[in-house]
Amino acid sequence: MTKPTILVTGGAGFIGSQVCKTLAAAGFLPVAYDNLSNGYAWAVRWGPLERGDLRDGAGLRDVLRRHRPAAVMHFAALIEVGESVRDPARFYDTNVAGSLSLLEAMRAEGVDDLIFSSTAAVYGMPAHTPVVETLPLRPINPYGVTKMVIESMLADYAAAYGLRFGTLRYFNAAGGDPEADIGEAHDPESHLIPLVLDVALGVRPEIAIFGDDYPTPDGTCVRDYIHVCDLARAHLLALRRLLDGGESLTVNLGNGAGHSVREVIETARRVTGHPVPARLAPPRPGDPPVLVADCARAVADLGWRQERAALDVIVADAWRWRQRWRASPPVDAR
Ligand code: UFG
């Protein structure tokens, strides 16, 4: 029997490649569609790579015709919040126009099921934590706005054209493949855990703590770090739900547990056994003091449970990958 194919846009990226590994282990053939602007060919190991841009509608249709996927998983996007403030046009083009191009290609080729990577950034500065999905969406930067617009597009396509979707709102994706086959390699890196691990490795001199006067137990921002493998399993469950004829859904994905910047730094010191010099820096504009997910809906609707929730495990898995990647970068790493 041939394996069902899943088209994975952004399949060469951090989360997309982990999901490809999970899909392959579950008996699917993941076909990565990626322009390699932020992803890496070495991360595509569990199925073919179709090199292409989201905004190339004809190219997408050709790929859909050749591979006949049962569903699409859509990770490809620009993700850096600061860059979205400096250059919003690129974000609207890649994220919004790119997603429209994908939806149109799917509609033309009769592919109806889509899993979409959304973000906690759609909530902006939420009035309550833990954050439930029913809170109003009030993004405070262009990145979050683009993801909110795409969520609306999915709802409208569902009502008008019969699209079925699973929208997954990630909190802070972190960790790494426990076998260290693949992992986070953003360029430039802006996320806390990989930056802290670079300091532990000695390739950065120190970590800047963006503010310590927040209304949190130790004054630094609290975030909900979720292991990429737990994210990947949630994608598989959401996919199976759609393929089994279940209804569309929108769920938060986090640990449901918050950790402060100082806790992350302490954990990195403990896990790596290396010093991690830190210095206080001004707060970053637009950082909510606390962002923690209520994941009850994902648990109830997907039967999802975190398996690698402890911050020590998240940091240890990211550390294993970081050491391996820094020691011998994959051939096409820039
Ligand atoms: N931080 C530092 N120093 C650094 C980097 C980060 O103190 O050098 C702090 C940030 O201020 C924040 C926490 O560490 O409090 C985590 O920062 P990240 O940049 O790793 O992650 P964010 O919480 O800012 O961003 C994440 C996702 C975004 C998403 C956002 C939603 O990476 O894609 O959550 O709010 F938009």
Key terms:
seven-stranded parallel β-sheet, three-stranded mixed β-sheet, EC 5.1.3.2, 334 residues, 10 helices, alpha/beta, Rossmann fold, single chain, 2 domains, UDP_G4E, binds uridine-5'-diphosphate-4-deoxy-4-fluoro-alpha-D-galactose, 40% helix, Epimerase_deHydtase, UDP-galactose 4-epimerase, domain 1
How would you describe what is shown here?
The protein is of the alpha/beta class. It has two domains: 197 residues, NAD(P)-binding Rossmann-like Domain (Rossmann fold), CATH 3.40.50.720; 104 residues, Alpha-Beta Complex (UDP-galactose 4-epimerase, domain 1), CATH 3.90.25.10. It contains ten helices and 14 strands. Strands 3-2-1-4-5-6-11 form a seven-stranded parallel β-sheet, sandwiched between helices. A three-stranded mixed β-sheet has the order 12-9-14. Strands 7-10 form a two-stranded parallel ribbon. Helix 5 links the parallel strand 5 and strand 6. Helix 1 packs across helix 7, helix 2 packs across helix 4 and helix 4 runs parallel beside helix 5. The radius of gyration is 19 Å and the shape is globular. The termini are far apart. The model has no long low-confidence stretch (mean pLDDT 95). The structure holds uridine-5'-diphosphate-4-deoxy-4-fluoro-alpha-D-galactose. The site of uridine-5'-diphosphate-4-deoxy-4-fluoro-alpha-D-galactose has 21 residues, from helix 6 and strand 8.
